[in-house]
Amino acid sequence: MTKVEILEELPKLTTEERQEIRLKLAELDGDGWLDADDPLTAEEKALLEARLADIEEQPEKSIPWEEAKRRIESRFGK
User: Fold this and answer.
1) Which of 38, 40, 58, 73 would give a disulfide with 44, using CB separation of 3.0 to 4.6 Å?
2) Sign of the dihedral through C-alpha 69, 17, 23, 36
3) For residue 36, what is the DSSP state?
4) For 6, phi and psi rounded to 5 degrees?
5) Which of 39, 38, 22 is CA-nearest to residue 30?
6) Residue 37: per-residue pLDDT
7) What does pTM read for this prediction?
8) H or E element: which one contains 25?
9) What share of the chain is helix, strand, coil (3-state, %, to 5)?
10) In degrees rounded to 5, what are phi and psi of residue 30?
11) Is 70 helix (H, G, I), strand (E, B) or coil?
12) Closest to 7 measured CA to CA, from 20, 21, 23
């Protein structure tokens, strides 16, 4: 299969299949390419890392996504 054929087939794949491809590319090439157009600043990345570390250290503080989504929508609307 040529590169052109692969690129033509990508839109036909399911979301799950495309995710598999992304994971395989990351496995082959590392994750560096994912950050090429990353809009986050160093400070934002540090904040996310700190919050992730907090959740890993204290998982009882986290809530399921559906609950978080409900809270966000009730506070800010849809």
Assistant:
1) 40
2) negative
3) T
4) -60, -45
5) 22
6) 66
7) 0.40
8) helix 15-29
9) 75, 0, 25
10) 85, 175
11) helix
12) 21
What confidence score (pLDDT) does residue 34 get?
62
Residue with the two structure tokens 């890993």 = 56
CB 41: neighbour CB atoms within 10 A? 9
Residue type, 30: G
Dist CA 53 CA 63 (whole Å): 15
Listed as ranges, residues in the chain with pLDDT below 50 are none
Query: Closest Cα partner for 35 from 43, 45, 49?
Result: 45
* Tokens at 61, concatenated: 């503080």
CB atoms within 10 A of CB 77: 6
How many CB atoms are located within 10 Å of the residue 25 CB? 13
First to last CA, the chain: 44
